[in-house]
Hints:
By secondary structure, the chain is of the alpha/beta class. Helices cover 41% and strands 14% of the residues. The chain has helices at 9-15, 41-48, 63-76, 87-98, 113-125, 138-144, 167-176, 227-240, 246-256, 259-279, 297-303, 318-328, 358-363, 380-404, and strands spanning 80-84, 104-108, 129-133, 149-155, 180-184, 202-206, 220-224, 283-287, 310-315, 333-334, 344-346, 371-374. Helix 3 runs parallel beside helix 9 (246-256) and helix 12 (318-328) packs across helix 14 (380-404). The chain is globular. The site of pyridoxal-5'-phosphate (PLP) has 14 residues, from helix 4.
Amino acid sequence: MKNHSKIDFQTKCVHSGIDEYEYGSVVPPIYQTSTFKFKSAQHGASLFAGEERGYIYTRMLNPTIEAMENAIAELEGGHKALGCGSGMAAVHTIFGALTQTGDHVVCSSAVYGPTTTLLNTIMKKFGVETTFVDTAKTDEVKKAIKPNTKVVYVETPGNPTLCISDLKEISDIAHQHKAMVVVDNTFMSPALQNPIALGADVVMHSLTKFLNGHADVVGGIIVVKDEQTYQHFRKTLNQLGGVIDPFNAFLVHRGLKTLAIRMERHCESAQVIAEWLEKHPLIKWIRYPGLKSHPHFNIGQKQHKGPGGMITLELKGGLEAGRVMMDSVNLFQLAVSLGGVESLIQHPASMTHFSMGKEARLAGGITEGLVRISVGIENVKDLIADLEQALEKVKIAQNKQHELHV
Length: 406
Ligand SMILES: Cc1ncc(COP(=O)(O)O)c(C=O)c1O
């Protein structure tokens, strides 16, 4: 997009990454091709030698993917971006690019389960050690940094505990020790939080979530700040091979156009639902970045523009009560993932964070009874009515249990 510096985020969502296309097409054409024909042997050779810019092979670069990458780089305030086949392909590419045997990583203890598992298995196998700390406590980050720490990896708000870490403070500390700060911004999206503006070096997202927003794509993205890092990451991604498909990139680019208005609705509805749940007699505890009772409410207020669409809670009666709730909802769908237009509910300890093991889960604050909700864009009254009838069923089940025991 030309002359974009003064344009509002909502307008950028519609226009970013869009260029002039053949036949006057207003959306990027889908170049569903694995390879690109050279004009001559000399042309092919000069493309490979980097003497000329152009497309060679889709694992290396593809115009449909590039349009989506440019759009997200612009929305995040980064230099360039790299589209990956999944959020996890992005995480793997990041550690592949930034670490080598003998290096050390400091990582939030509450992160998406497979990120923990990747660090504890594959990265460990290649000699990269990780210290997991509660990054909401900046002092713990400071203490964990060693002379060989290359990356401080922060997910904020963390999945699923919604812990909020101070990105500016963490970036200052990491940079004093020459470590790079990588932020998983999936739960916020660039509509609500821009880690690069707060000091981060690299931002990643699972595109599968809010950025695409329609639960029909698996993808990931890495946003970087400068050309040198971009070239290094591009080489790594080309070698590891975890690129996104052009059609999925097209769908993500389409989803981006409504990102700003979707995020507005996610935030509005989640706030209303969280306030309603907080007062419900069956709630043991609830965490939502928009509630004043959130332990890191003030950090959130400093660094995000809205509290997002994710809520976690535990019912009185723990896992058993949570299971009845999950089995009783009608509009909320019992499914993993998040950030789509439809509301979802799931149980991290037995689903998304199962692979971490109980010990690591509890260390990260992921209790066995924790239930995670992704608030979609349906009418909030319908969503509350659905939760109300599900909680009524929990009450009936608990009363029955009580009668059996007296
Ligand atoms: C915060 C976060 N990061 C990364 C991922 C991994 O993304 P993907 O499932 O697209 O590989 C997820 C998936 O749920 C996630 O929630």
